[in-house]
Design a protein that fits this description.
oxidoreductase; eight-stranded mixed sheet; oxidoreductase activity, acting on single donors with incorporation of molecular oxygen, incorporation of two atoms of oxygen; two-stranded antiparallel ribbon; binds fe (iii) ion; binds 3,4-dihydroxybenzoic acid; 10 helices; ferrous iron binding; alpha/beta
């Protein structure tokens, strides 16, 4: 049967991708941020997962605000990024795990989740920046990806509890898959940030650290928050934190924290990193 080895949370700020492309990871601004990643990379090269299930949000590349699935799952054989308006360098295609993705979709529909199933789908920085961070030099040819895309761009957005429940259903689906594949689950995005409006630049370090603690020790506390609470506490882009709840739902209730880091700010955002086994 398939096994979930652990979960990783990371921010997905586009400027990180640009810093990687420009090779400026060791400059004073970036060093403390990038220096947090080697332990996670080492864990990945040690555990060698076959599949990465990635909870992320699409910022308008594939799903613009004119048509927004609440939950979209990719079942394609391959995924591509393309220019999101800031000249992202082309990266190698990302391989999909089509068969397991279809299994997950079947199970989710059985569990009454009304997902959008995507046989073609462009993936944006929400998914590709974490890939570049985890596998330097874009050395991710060996891993197959299942994108799980959750709407946090257009209200109404799914509640933290709904995303946690989706994660639980995905975890159950993985554990009922009859091939011996090892899976790592990602939650990308967050932490607090607000990119526009009167509170542009808003960051809430205290709330970010509270979320990092709760995601590990008491995720139920976060499921009691509403999207409105997240906007208030973590800024208008703070709802990206629901990706972390999706990841957490897929993991065992009991886990070990292998690595943790919080660095603020990167661009406009509080950047959190967790490795959970
Ligand atoms: C930033 C953060 C994001 O999550 C994003 O999607 C785009 C930009 C930022 O802080 O610059
Ligand atoms: Fe984002």
């Amino acid at each position: 049967m398939a096994t979930i080895l652990g979960g990783i949370t990371t921010s997905h700020i586009p400027a990180i991708g640009r810093a990687i492309d420009e090779g400026i990871e060791q400059t004073p601004y970036w060093k403390p941020f990038f220096d947090a990643y080697p332990p996670v990379r080492e864990w990945l090269s040690d555990k060698k997962p076959d599949v990465a299930i990635i909870f992320y949000n699409d910022h308008g590349l594939e799903f613009f605000i004119d048509r927004k699935p609440t939950f979209a799952i990719g079942v394609a054989e391959e995924y591509f990024n393309s220019d999101e308006g800031w000249g992202i360098k082309p990266i190698p295609p990302i391989h999909g795990e089509s068969e397991m993705a279809w299994h997950i979709c079947n199970e989710l529909v059985d569990q009454e989740f009304d997902i959008t199933i995507c046989q073609e789908m462009k993936v944006d920085h929400g998914l590709t920046v974490p890939m570049q961070l985890m596998w330097p030099g874009n050395q991710y040819d060996h891993i197959k990806v299942i994108p799980v895309c959750i709407n946090v761009e257009q209200h109404p957005m799914p509640s933290p509890k709904r995303c946690y429940d989706l994660g639980k259903a995905i975890g159950d689906a993985v554990r009922s898959y009859d091939k011996d594949l090892n899976v790592v689950v990602f939650g990308t995005g967050g932490m607090s940030h607000q990119l526009d409006g009167q509170r542009a630049g808003f960051i809430n370090k205290e709330f970010d650290l509270y979320c990092m603690d709760k995601i590990v020790n008491e995720p139920q506390a976060l499921t009691r928050l509403s999207i409105r609470d997240l906007v208030e506490q973590a800024g208008s882009q703070g709802p990206e934190l629901i990706m972390w709840l999706g990841m957490r739902g897929a993991l065992n209730p009991r886990l070990t924290v292998k690595h943790s880091n919080y660095h603020v700010p990167i661009s406009n955002t509080g950047a959190g990193l967790l490795l959970l086994e």
